[in-house]
Specification:
The chain is α+β, with helices and mostly antiparallel strands and 470 residues long. It contains 15 helices and 18 strands. Strands 15-12-14-13-17-18-16 form a 7-stranded antiparallel sheet, with helices on both faces. Strand 5 (97-101) and strand 6 (106-109) form a beta hairpin. The protein is globular and about 70 Å long. The structure holds flavin-adenine dinucleotide (FAD). Flavin-adenine dinucleotide (FAD) binds next to strand 3, helix 5, strand 10 and helix 12.
Length: 470
Amino acid sequence: MIAPDIKREFINIVGEENFEDSEVGRLVYSYDATPNFQSIPDAVVSPRNTEEVSKILQLCNENKIPIVPRGSGTNLCAGTCPVEGGIVLLFKHMNKILEIDEENLTVTCQPGVITLDLIHAVEQKGLFYPPDPSSMKISTIGGNINENSGGLRGLKYGVTRDYVLGLEAVLPNGEIVRTGGKLAKDVAGYDLTRLFIGSEGTLGVITEATLKLIPLPESKKTMLALFQDLEAAARSVSKIIANKVIPATLEFLDQPTLKVVEDYSQIGLPTDVQAVLLIEQDGTPENVSKDMKVMEEICRSENAVSVQIAQSEEEAEALRTARRTALSALARLAPTTILEDATVPRSEIAKMVKAINEIAAKHNVKICTFGHAGDGNLHPTCTTDIRKKDEMERVEKAFAEIFAKAIELGGTITGEHGVGAMKAPYLEWKLGKSGIDVMKSIKAALDPNNIMNPRKLFAKDTRKRVVISK
Ligand SMILES: Cc1cc2nc3c(=O)[nH]c(=O)nc-3n(C[C@H](O)[C@H](O)[C@H](O)COP(=O)(O)OP(=O)(O)OC[C@H]3O[C@@H](n4cnc5c(N)ncnc54)[C@H](O)[C@@H]3O)c2cc1C
């Protein structure tokens, strides 16, 4: 619990109405979108500006109180689960778009802005902010930056990292730093902007971000290719890229996912095929038509049973939305849904999907797979029940083997969801001991008292996965 004198200091900084320590108020922030992780914070604090964030961090640093910055809590790696108690920091007041600069093609905003609100705001000016995590209706820019989130448009346009030009961050000792700016070029010193991107709230608090915008593409087309052979779908992905066509979207759904997505969205998706590719291209109408034709021919050469181009924007949007609801649709199947994001070089997708299916069969667990095929970022998703201890042990083993396989194929344990507390035990598999040591040195230099989101990224026990509940 927070001592009464420190509670008073918090209230002096943010006001009574922005300090919450009732049991119910704390319970709401004891978990995030990650199943099986829950831990109650001591208080929930909602600063109104950077100065207040700075004072809060100083106070916490002096008193060694853990801080968990939290956007919308949609992360899937237990990144906002307060595993060591302390305070949860909310950005509900720091949620403004500060400026859209049409000359420099930038948008500057506070961390609590909802991703889709920002996308819509810049689109009204004919501009484009491409990072589009499927959670964008609710996720925040602060969360996106700290997880370095990607989305359906990642293949062609990159991920959040590729659009962050500058940041304002508050360090654990309360100092405020500014990195980068409205600059296309800046090589002055270490790239501190990138250091904060994907740092999962472990190095400081982002209080402002300047993001790059690009012109909104003139036109867009959407296509659905259906396959009876999963490997043929994967080969089509490799062939499309090898033919030097980079589609805006190249998504993959296996049959079990397809069935639940159709059941959920009811838009008439075929459910009798083994795999589906959702393909989009944007750009000038001429280039879009040319690329769509090449991609259609490639899919047909791989014996796609059907290739259909959406006839209207409504139809295209329905297909995109259906794909984005894959996780919610799968979540209806069982009490617990564990979605992972093992990622491999795209040339290895077929091998990885096959391995996932074999591993699931070996451990007798139900795993469906969908994901961003174009960038090798797969989402093997297990529908299970945390109350069944024996089944959960098999699920853990299956995912450990999936991560090991991804690394063996030249991939990684996470392509976009981050490490958090959930995948911390596996990070050393990817980085090796020396990689972890470098990260620990950076962490110790910036946050010697380890107050920023403790036990995220760095596992206490690197041999086995931890399941924490309090
Ligand atoms: C249905 C669903 C679909 C999803 N689809 C995708 C997808 O397509 N692509 C993808 O990449 N992810 C996806 N995710 C995961 C998640 O939505 C993203 O990681 C997202 O960026 C998290 O945003 P958030 O605002 O919810 O952040 P939170 O979950 O609240 O926080 C994420 C991390 O950022 C830190 N943080 C938040 N704000 C700040 C700040 N101001 N300063 C410092 N640290 C901060 C937190 O401490 C935490 O470590 C999905 C999740 C769900 C539930």
